[in-house]
Amino acid sequence: MQYQHADPSSRRNEVWSLVVYISGACRGNGTSESRASYGVYFGPGSPHNASGLLPSTVEQSRARGVIEALATALSSIRAIQQNDSQVVYIKVATDSSYLVGVMTWAIEDWIKDNGIGSNGQAVAHYNELKTLHGLLDGMEHDINQLMYIQFWHVDRCMNGDANALANAALDAAPVGPD
């Protein structure tokens, strides 16, 4: 199942829709001192807004941070829909063209090729992305709850609240190894 890549310029408030903004952040990217985080923003004061640092045992990069943000958002979406089954249209907005491209175009080919990309190399974060794809597929095909999921690639300025949450997690992080 490939998930639709929505055009953010076509946004409109739909009955039964939910928009969640997600972001990853990384400081010192590409160095041994790098530290990454994620931010998930549902709206002002939402109890589902979340942020945190990536465990030190995983790659510390912005791409890995946005993957963690998606995993966190999907967990909250499942909880929201269990309490409000009228939420049908889910929009996942992010400024990560990487994540939108992976989840809307590349992942199914990668799964067919057992995690090998078109360049013949192993795909970074393949296991996490494959797991998220399976979760999304299960959410859309749950016979008990109707759900349609779209990914929106938005400008960074439209994703400020999720970015702020991700950066706040980094600001609050203790200095040095955890």
User: What is the residue-mean pLDDT, rounded to a whole number?
Assistant: 89
Number of domains: 1
Computed over alpha carbons, the radius of gyration is 16 Å
The CATH class turns out to be Alpha Beta
What CATH calls the topology is Nucleotidyltransferase, domain 5
Low-confidence stretches: 1-5
How many DSSP-defined strands? 6
CATH superfamily: Ribonuclease H-like superfamily/Ribonuclease H
Proportion of residues in extended strands:
15-25%
Report the CATH architecture: 2-Layer Sandwich
The global form is globular
Instruction: Report the order of strands and helices.
Output: EEEEHEHHEH
User: Which structural class matches the secondary elements?
Assistant: alpha/beta
Distance between termini?
A: 38 Å
Sheet with most strands: strand arrangement: 1-6-5-2-3-4
Task: Give the helix tally.
Answer: 4
Written account of the structure:
- The protein is of the alpha/beta class and 178 residues long.
- It has one domain: Ribonuclease H-like superfamily/Ribonuclease H (Nucleotidyltransferase, domain 5).
- 37% of the residues lie in helices and 21% in strands.
- It contains four helices and six strands.
- The chain has helices at residues 62-83, 97-112, 126-140, 160-171, and strands at residues 4-6, 17-27, 35-41, 50-53, 89-94, 148-153.
- It has a six-stranded mixed beta sheet with strand order 1-6-5-2-3-4, sandwiched between helices.
- Helix 2 packs across helix 3 (126-140).
- The longest helix has 22 residues, at 62-83.
- It is globular and about 45 Å long.
